[in-house]
Amino acid sequence: MFPTPKPSLVPNTYAYESEPMVKPTGFREYDARWLFQKEINLMGIQALGMGLGTLMHEMKVRPEIVTGHDFRGYSASIKYALVSGLMAAGIKVRDIGLAMSPMAYFAQFALDVPAVAMVTASHNDNGWTGVKMGVNRPLTFGPDEMNRLKDIVLGAKFDLRGGGAYEFVADFPQTYFNDLTNRAKLKHPIKVVCACGNGTAGAFAPKILEALGCEVIPLDTELDHSFPKYNPNPEDMEMLHAMRDAVLAHKADVALGFDGDGDRCGVVDDEGEEIFADKMGVMLARDLAKLHPGATFVVDVKSTGLFATDPELIKLGVKADYWKTGHSYMKRRVNETGALVGFEKSGHYFFNAPIGRGYDDGLVSAIAVLDMLDRNPGKKLSELRQALPKTWSSPTMSPHCADEAKYGIVEQVVKHFQDLAARGELVTGQKIRDLVTVNGVRVTTEDGSWGLVRASSNKPELVVVVESPVSEARMREMFGAMDAVLRTHPEVGEYNQKI
Q1: Fewer Cβ in 10 A, N or C end of the chain?
Q2: CA torsion angle 345 350 354 356 (round to 10)
Q3: What b/e sequence results for 7-41 when a residue is b if at least 16 CB atoms lie within 10 Å of its CB, and e otherwise?
Q4: How confident is the model at residue 135 (pLDDT cuts 50, 70, 90)?
Q5: Are 277 and 266 in contact (CB under 8 A)?
Q6: d(CA 312, CA 333)
Q7: For 174-226, how does the pLDDT look when each residue is reduced to its tens digit (9 = 90+)?
Q8: Nearest CA to 417 among 399, 435, 398, 438?
Q9: 267, 280 contact by CB (below 8 A)
Q10: 239 with 178: CB under 8 angstroms?
Q11: What does the pLDDT read at residue 237?
Q12: Residue 498 has what pLDDT?
C-alpha cells in the first residue's frame, strides 16, 4: 500500500527518500505548482501520477495520456516519476519528450489521446515545477477537478489496478512543425526578433518563423535551464527591454517573445515599444473582426477596457465578455461561448476555429500577429498601435502574499469596495461606476479609470493592475487607491515591480 503523502519532510533524511511529500498548497485553481525538493519530492510526484490516473478512471476517461516536459534541469526526472505513478494506476502513457505546453495540447488531437499531463513550471523561477493537466481536449483542469485530485492524492485514495504502458513518440516536434507551417507563406517580408529567454521555445520557434517566410533574428534562443540572463517571461520588463534593444539594433519590424513553456507570446513593435498583451489583443481583435464581424472575444479581468469601448470594435459589432484570469478558466469560457478568441493580459491567447483549436499556443499567437501585419502592407506595427485610443496602463504588479493568506485578503478587499459602492462613497474622488467580482475585484470609476486586485493562481502573490483612459496621473491615483487598501493588511509584501 502506497504511503499517505506528508505535507513536509526534511531533505537528506531516510524519511525524505522513503515517503511521499506533497505540500497541499501546490494544488492550485487550475494547475499544480511546487518548489521541487522543498514542497514536493519525487515520491510525491509519483503519488500525483497515481492520483491523476485514479481520477481518470473515476471520470470514465479512456486510460491514455500524453506527457512531455519543459527544459529545466530536473523536469525529465519529474516526468518519469509522474509516468511511473500513471502506469501504476493502469494508464497508457504517450511521451512526446522535450516539448512546449502547446505541443502537448496539440498531441491530444494529433495522436487522438483524451488526456494530457505536461510537466512545466512555465515562467516561474528555477526551483519551481508543476503539471498542467486535462482530460477533455482542449480544456485543462479547473477548481473542481483540482480539488478532487488534491483529495485523492493527499488521502492516498489510489486505484492502483496496474496494466499501464509506456510509449515514446519519436519525432513529434516535426508533426507540430508541419501543422503550423503547412500553409501559404507570408506575402510580404517581415524581419522578426525571436526571443526565447533560453527556455524551451528556443528549440522550435526560430525554425517555425523562418519556414513561414520571416527573416529571423534569434535572441537568447540557445537552451540553457540556468536562465543566465532573465526568466523567460514576456510579461517581465527585463525580457521586454531586451527585446526592445534587439528590435532597435537590428531595425526589425517586430519582436516576438515566448515564455518558458511556449504557451504565451509577448510583442515589441518596430519603435521598441512594449505592447502589453491586452493592447495587442485589441489590435488583433480589430483585424480579425473585419474577417469575422459580430464575433465574441473573451477577455480576462486584468485586460484593458478598450475591448468594450473601442469605436472600431463597436462599429464591427463585436461582443466583449470579461471573464476570470487563468488559462483553464479562459479556455473553458472560449469553448462554452464559441468565441473567436480569448485574450488574457498575461499573453495567453486562445484561438478557436478556424484559427486554432481552442488552447493557448504562443506560436499560433505569433502567427496571428504576423498575419495581421501581412494583411496591412505598408503599415508598421507602431502605426497600428498608435491607431488605438490612448490609455495609460500599468504592468501586472505582484506583491508577495502567502498562499495560505492571499484568498482571505482578497475577500476582504472585495467586501471593502462593495461596502464603499453600497454607501455611495468615492474612490479617487469619483463615484464607482462598476464593480466586477468574477475574479477578485475590478473597480471602475466614472471617468473609466479602473483598478484590479486578485489572488495569483500559481504563485504566493496578489495581482494588481490599473488603467486610465484619461491620464497617467489618473492611473497613478487608481494605483494609490488600490495599494492603500492592501497596505492595511500586513501580510501583503513588496511588489515585484511598480509603475
Answers
A1: N
A2: 120
A3: eebeeeeeebeebbbbbeebbbbbbbbbebbebbb
A4: very high
A5: yes
A6: 24
A7: 999 999 999 999 999 999 999 999 999 999 999 999 999 999 999 999 999 99
A8: 435
A9: yes
A10: no
A11: 87
A12: 78
> Which residue type, as a one-letter code, is found at position 17?
E
Q: Which residues pair with 427 in a beta bridge?
A: 430
Residue bearing cell 502506469: 87
Q: Which grid coordinates belong to 334?
A: 472560449
